[in-house]
Structures are given as C-alpha cells and as structure tokens.
UniProtKB/TrEMBL annotation:
Keywords: Membrane, Transmembrane, Transmembrane helix. Residues 87-361 form the DUF7847 domain. Residues 9-18 have a biased composition (Pro residues). Residues 1-48 are annotated as: Disordered. The chain crosses the membrane at residues 104-127, 157-183, 204-233, 239-261, 296-320, 332-362. InterPro entries: DUF7847. The keyword Nucleotide-binding does not apply. This is DUF7847 domain-containing protein. It comes from the Bacteria. Pfam families: DUF7847.
Amino acid sequence: MTSPDHEPPTPPGYPTPTGPGYSGGPGYQDTPGYTAAPGPPAAPGYPTAPGYPTAPGYGTAPGYGPPGGYRPPAAQPGIIPLRPLGLGEILDGAFRAIRANPRVMFGLTALVVTITVAIQTVVQWYIGGLLAGPAQDLTAQVDPTGELELADTLAPLLAQLFTLPAISLATTVLTGLLIVAVSRSVLGQTVTIGEVWRTYRGRVGLVVLFTILVALATSVILGAFVAVIVLVGTNDAEILAVVIALVGSLLIVVASFWLLVRTLLIPAAIMLEGAGFGSAIVRGWKLTRGSYWRLLGIYLLTSVIVNIVSAIITVPATAIATFITQGETTSFGYLVILGVSNIVALTLTTVFTAAVIALLYIDVRMRREGLDVELARAAGEPRA
C-alpha cells in the first residue's frame, strides 16, 4: 500500500486529482474555459399555478336559481283552477260539477225531465191515435197496400212535433238553473234547489224569452226560404228552384253554426250578470267575439259526446220496445219504454251540456277580463 507521499505520477494528459492529500502537480493549471456547473436555484416557494385562481369561497353557483318563467299553481277553491282553461279541464270540470252538487245537477234535472217526458208520452200517444187515420189517407197514394208502413211512421212523427216545444222549454229552464249551480261550484260552494229557484227564477224567464225569440226568428227565415222555393218552382223554373234550394240550404247551415256560437253564452250572461234583457244579449254576443272557432270546436265535441251517450241508451231501448210491441210504434207500451230511455238520456246530456256552457262562459271571461282574479278574491284565496 502506498502513502500519499509516494503517489505514483499522474499519467500525462490527465488532470491532477484534488482532494485532501492531493496537490496539483507542477505545471498543471485549471483548464481554461471550464467553470463549476451552476447548481439549481433555490425554490422560491410554491406559487399558485397559472390559470387556477384561488376559490373565492362557497357562493351560489352561476346558472342556479328559480327557473325562468316559473309561476306557482293557480288557486283552485272548487272544480277548476282559476286560470284560462284547456279543453280537457273544461270537460273534466263538467264532470266535477256534477259530482260537486249532484242534488241540483242530477236531482233537479231528473225531476223536470221526468215530468216533461211523462207529459210528452201521454200527449204523443193521444195525438198519434188521432192522426193515425189522416196519416193513412195522406200515404194512400204512395203506399196503398201499407207494405211500406208509411202511415205508422208518419203519425208518431207528427205527434212528436207537438211535444218538441215542451222538451225545448224544459231543457232551456234547466240549462239556466244549472249554469248557476256550476258557477257556484267553481268557488267551492253548493246551492240548494230551493235557493236556485228563489233567487234566479226571474232570470230563467228571460232565458226562456230569448229562446222563444230565437226559435221564432229561425222559423220565419226557414218559412220564407221554403216559400221562395215553392214560388219559383210553380212558375216553371224547376232548375232555378233546385239551385236556390241547394245554395240556400248551404247558406242556412253556415248561418246556423255562426248564430249558434254567437248566442252560445247569452243564457249564461243573462243568469249570472244580472243585467237587463237587451244588455245581457249584447253582452253575451260580444263575449264570443274573437273566440268563434274555439267555442265552436268545444261545443261540437260536446255535442258528439252527448249524442253518443244518448244513442247508447235510446237505440237498445227502441229495439226492445219494437220487439215487445211487435212494431206498434203508436202503442202506449212502446211510448213508455221509449220515454224511460229518454228520461235517462236527457238527464245526462242536459246536465253535461249545461256544465260545459257555464265553464266556457267563465273561461272566456278569465281570458279576456281577468275574471280569475275576481274569483280568487271572492273565494278568499291569494291569486297565483
């Protein structure tokens, strides 16, 4: 082992080692141009990474909060929400009105319809017997052998014409009274039959008067139309008479639908607003302005529904009556069976139709006049 004092000489071309006990050999200098490698700089700390700001705390996240356009549910003290109604809500409200006050809606209607149909059945049976002979004479040339049974069909039809005014009058009175019951059900209130009659019987008279005036005006127009056709046809102008009949019939159908809708809300205006007769007619007429197609569509749909219900009840009853009486359509038994089915059908259809008309009136006023605010105030509930 050698000591540092006897270290072998460094090979030529190699730097002299340094360290304790080593000394640079003679003639060896530090290589020019070489300096010590700089060490890594001291970490100045941990700065915040660029792009990541310090969280400012826990606040409301942007974009969260009440949804735009949100409104709380409308007040509903009764059968419908106090806001403009959709088709489904009107039809559903009609059923709810029946359930809310069945004593008035069904009880009163069934009572009036039963009395009316009973009178109709007796009158129809009596008049049908009186007209059997004249009907036979009228159809003798067309059906001399009686195989077509025209006389048996004509006599009941003529007898029924005499009883139609009674049915129309009864349904008109009921419609007026039921409109009042439905309007109270909207506020969650019920009325008795006696209260409705005592309070609104005067208004019912105005509804009946209006219905009679409309019927008279319609009869005059139809009578004039038929007279013109007959007059033209008797002057050797059959083709012109046919043209007038076709075009006139089309115009009458269009005018009938138009008049039906424009007068649809007049009974409700008469019953509920307490105005005079003329003012109520003008009022009901104006309420339908701008809502013609909507009112027409809902009323036609209601008519389809009630006609289907009526057919479901009366068609089987007619078949049963025909089978039992062997086709004797003027017999008392036939008329009784038919009368019972008519009582059930008329009760159901009158109640439902009146409820729909009342709700249409309320809906139109909520849309145009803000009636929902007044109703909510009357019911003691805050308006949404």
